[in-house]
From TrEMBL:
Keywords: Dioxygenase, Oxidoreductase, Pyruvate. It comes from Aspergillus steynii IBT 23096. The lineage of its organism: Eukaryota, Fungi, Dikarya, Ascomycota, Pezizomycotina. This is 4-hydroxyphenylpyruvate dioxygenase. Residues 26-320 form the Xylose isomerase-like TIM barrel domain. Transmembrane segments: none annotated. InterPro entries: IolE/XylAMocC-like, Xyl_isomerase-like_sf, Xyl_isomerase-like_TIM-brl.
Length: 332
């Protein structure tokens, strides 16, 4: 595990527009993380603030990252691409713009979450064809940008790593692989917002089965990078009377937006067995790539929230995960 490099998602250091991307990069470096996932909205806000184009903003951010010895891991999240009802040509034009930004940032990946619009096309042939077009666009110029496909636990067609792996195999492109996030694994199979216990009745067995299958079937070279986050227990259980409830919105999506602390932040309600997933995804597979923390803590939406507080929490969370999994996870 000594070779795993550590990153943070830029929104994991603050979600208010005043929480500037340049400050987040400085904090990433200060607290010992060597990579950052640049969230498109953060880059757009930075560029607008300086009255420059987003391409020029990306160039400035790359210079700032270099000055702070921080690598850009990914540009994220390129949402609702495959199976959308809009013309494919329009979506590919947008993708080309994102890829141009990623190349300026020297980001090896554009992160693509699985489609989650309820009215999306679910024909697997369509999905595979469109993802192939996207991957081919990523490899059409140099440097090649890889597509890190992330299954969402509320995805319309793809909501498990099993389905995501099937799509990766069908797309069959060297620059198309998996972005794995503990939140999606655990909210799909283990954590329930509706149960008093916080768990589905068969949670532990289902998770064990999933992890055993994962170890047996996922090719190491198709794990592009891994993201870590926890989930806050609902107390009382989630219902239509809950203040976060939005009619028609997937409960897992609601959960993700409001209650995703850093791993093992029990003081903020975190209760999921993140270390068990890490042991399989990282230790048992021998994965030596990037590990990033991606959290969405509702406290971070406030202007008063201090991004440095998040950076301190991220570093402490990493130490807790290290202790829980046993062997050291990368550099401190």
């Amino acid at each position: 595990m000594q070779s795993n490099k550590q990153a943070l998602g830029s929104l994991s250091l603050g979600q208010h527009p005043s929480h500037s991307l340049d400050h987040k990069i400085q904090l990433t470096s200060k607290y010992g993380f060597t990579g950052i996932e640049v969230v498109f909205s953060d880059l757009q806000t930075y560029s607008d603030k300086h009255n420059i184009s987003i391409l020029d903003g990306a160039a400035r951010i790359k210079q700032l990252c270099d000055a702070n010895n921080v690598e850009v891991l990914a540009l994220a999240p390129f949402e609702n691409f495959e199976g959308a009802r809009s013309p494919l040509s329009t979506r590919l034009a947008t993708a080309k713009h994102w890829l141009a930004i990623a190349r300026i940032l020297k980001a090896p990946y554009v992160q693509v979450p699985s489609q989650f619009n309820p009215d999306a096309i679910t024909d697997e042939n369509v999905i595979v064809h469109e993802l192939q077009q996207l991957a081919d666009l990523g490899s059409a110029e140099t440097p090649v940008v890889a597509i890190a496909y992330e299954y969402l636990s509320w995805g319309t067609y793809c909501s498990t790593w099993d389905t995501a792996l099937r799509l990766v195999q069908l797309v069959n492109r060297p620059n198309f692989g998996l972005c794995l996030d503990t939140f999606h694994e655990l909210t799909k199979l283990w954590g329930s917002p509706f149960e008093t216990s916080g768990k589905y009745p068969s949670a532990d067995q289902d998770l064990r089965d999933s992890l055993q299958r994962f170890k047996a079937t996922v090719p190491l070279e198709k794990i592009f990078y891994v993201q870590l986050s926890d989930g806050e227990r609902f107390d009382p259980p989630f219902s239509a009377s809950h203040p976060w409830y939005v009619e028609g919105e997937a409960p897992e999506f609601t959960w993700s937006k409001h209650g995703r602390p850093f791993p093992l932040e029990t003081s903020l309600g975190g209760y999921m067995p993140v270390p068990e997933v890490v042991k399989t995804w990282v230790l048992k597979t021998g994965f030596q790539g990037w590990i990033s923390m991606e959290v969405f803590d509702r406290q971070m939406r406030s202007r008063e929230f201090e991004p440095e507080t998040a950076a301190i929490r991220a570093r402490e969370s990493w130490r807790k995960v290290q202790a829980a999994v046993g062997p050291p996870m990368g550099r401190l």
